[in-house]
Write a structure and sequence with these properties.
Distance between the termini of chain A: 64 Å
Oligomer: heterodimer
Low-confidence stretches of chain A: 1-18, 58-62
Radius of gyration of chain A: 35 Å
Number of strands of chain A: 9
Largest interface: A-B, 61 and 56 residues
Low-confidence stretches of chain B: none
Distance between the termini of chain B: 54 Å
Helix content of chain B: 10-25%
Number of helices of chain B: 2
């Protein structure tokens, strides 16, 4: 060890006027060895720590569920996909729509929009720029309830945006009612990340339908 | 410089240690099956099912017990299915028809590949249902036969799968095949 240091120019230079005693030199050598050991230990801890951090960030996690649901578990913004038949048809997905709405956690909604394909209600080609019918949620006439087991019902009153909808879109409001069930995968704010639903009157067609809503 | 490096090293060590602790303590998905068993289908599932071009739809909540039977279950189907009439003056409870799972007459069996059969015996909740539920659903009790396939992804620490795909031979007792899925 001493030889190596001397070769590296770290030891005592020959011919120096002041020479330390052997015991002082020994203490210094021991101190350097201890310092080196501490450095190695520190690097080891750092490496283990960084690996641990990586594991903690990368490991697949599952969020905690709830043992009892309430209206509070259905809150925030949800994007929904819905489909049903149309009256007098037996073809599936005859009517489709996307919905964005905001249950408020207390049994009501703060906003909502339903966009349905115009071909749901008319046949034949339509202009791409006028291919959809927009409905707004009448929040004063809409509500939901969630039971402790996570099931519940929604009453959704949709009003057509008649001023901007293309010709052929429905011009009257309709009430849709759904049976919903919340998934027991809960976001940090307590809201479910997904709900399944079965609907009874999508677009006022008096036919059963189904879909889901996602955070 | 050396002191700074030492402090940085300590900081990394502390952060890393905390990360390691989080990594160890946070619940994560358990080892993935196969082999599967009845135990992988357990606790609560919500199921979205449909048949005959969405003409019949239903929302099931099932509670398999991990041992081949169920503790409870419900099925809600729109009254507007197959000739029934939706009424905008009625609350949702009266526009859906509720069926309760007869747990004594229901069972399931999952094989080692994750495929299984479900026999679900349903009884109409005639006390609370709209009397007009008998229009789309004339039979108050019926048995549904499903084949289910469990997912192997992100299995819960309990061993329960988070999703199963369904094909039904007679959804809602109609002579049409149906399909859907159950999710945690």
């Amino acid at each position: 060890m001493t030889l190596k240091r001397q070769k590296a120019g770290e030891g005592f230079a020959p011919g120096k006027r002041f020479r330390r005693s052997d015991s002082a030199r020994k203490r210094k050598d021991e101190g350097k060895i201890m310092s080196r050991n501490e450095n190695h230990l520190s690097k080891l801890i750092t490496t283990v720590g960084v690996v641990g951090l990586a594991i903690s960030l990368c490991a697949p996690k599952v969020s905690a569920g709830v043992s009892s649901f309430s209206n509070a578990n259905y809150t925030g913004r949800y994007a929904c996909s819905a489909a049903t038949t149309a009256t007098g048809t037996t073809n599936g997905d005859f009517i489709t729509a996307v919905i964005k709405y905001n249950p408020n956690g207390s049994g009501a909604y703060s906003a909502g929009t339903l966009i349905a394909a115009l071909n749901d209600v008319v046949t034949g080609p339509v202009s791409p720029s006028a291919a959809f019918c927009i409905f707004n949620l009448d929040v004063a006439a809409s509500s939901y309830t969630i039971n402790p087991d996570g099931t519940g019902f929604e009453s959704l009153t949709w009003t057509p945006e008649s001023a901007t909808n293309p010709p052929g879109c429905p011009t009257t409001a309709f009430l849709d009612e759904t049976a919903i069930a919340l998934r027991n995968i809960i976001a940090t704010d307590g809201s479910t990340i997904r709900a399944e639903f079965s609907s009874a009157n999508l677009l006022g067609e008096d036919e059963g339908g189904h879909g889901y809503c996602l955070k | 410089m050396s002191k700074r490096r030492w402090v940085a090293s300590k900081l990394f060590a502390v952060l890393g240690g905390a990360g390691l602790a989080i990594g160890v303590c946070v619940p994560r998905a358990s080892a993935q099956p196969p082999p599967f068993s009845n135990a992988n289908y357990a606790n609560r599932y919500v199921c979205n099912v449909t048949s005959d071009g969405d003409f019949f739809t239903g929302l099931m909540t099932l509670y398999p017990n991990g041992a081949g039977t169920y503790t409870k279950g419900t099925l809600e189907a729109p009254i507007s299915s197959d000739g029934g009439t939706f009424s905008s003056t009625l609350p949702p409870t009266q526009n859906f028809c509720l069926f309760n799972l007869d747990v004594a007459g229901s069972s399931y069996a999952i094989d080692t590949h994750g495929n299984g059969v479900e026999v679900l015996s349903w009884t109409a909740d005639t006390l609370s249902n709209n009397p007009s539920c008998t229009v789309p659903f004339p039979t108050s009790t019926f048995v549904m036969s499903n084949d289910i396939m469990l997912r192997a992804y992100a299995v819960k620490p309990s061993g329960a799968v988070i999703r199963a795909e369904i094909t039904s031979n007679n959804l809602l007792n109609f002579a049409f095949p149906g399909h859907g899925y159950c999710v945690k």
